[in-house]
Design goal:
139 residues, mainly alpha, 5 helices, single chain
Length: 139
């Protein structure tokens, strides 16, 4: 069984509540996709779950990148570059899902690679925003 990802406010907070809420939703959507594949819910269900992840990711990344610029975060460009790599990983995953269908192995790869990347990215890049956000900002 693939591991799910859990949002930890203490270590994953960006200092912008809206971004933190988006991270929670993105993580929840990825967990739903992993669970759907593990439970053998079928290719169409998994494709729909992945489509939701893709759409949400694009919107979240745009918002997060805007906040990095707004608060003059020094890792802003690094963040943009990292997002491009994540999108490529998701598209590569989608190609495999479309060609081979959902499987336990693919669920484990999603959990290990994509969700692992997201966790590391939030912890090492996104949280750098916290030092740039004025106290009390709602964002």
């Amino acid at each position: 069984m693939a591991a799910t990802l859990v949002y930890d406010h203490k270590t994953m907070s960006t200092g912008v509540k809206a971004l933190d809420d988006e991270h929670k939703t993105l993580i929840a959507n990825l967990n739903i996709l992993v669970t759907a594949m593990e439970q053998g819910q079928g290719a169409e269900v998994c494709r729909q779950a992945l489509a939701k992840v893709k759409t949400y990711t694009v919107n979240h990344f745009a918002h997060e990148e805007k906040c990095m610029v707004q608060f003059q975060c020094p890792v802003g460009q690094l963040n943009v570059d990292a997002h491009k790599l994540f999108v490529k990983s998701v598209l590569d995953f989608e190609a495999v899902l479309n060609s081979k269908g959902p499987s336990q192995l693919l669920a484990a790869q999603l959990s290990g690679q994509i969700m692992g990347w997201l966790r590391t990215h939030i912890l090492t890049t996104d949280t750098k925003l916290r030092a740039c956000v004025p106290v009390g900002t709602i964002g």
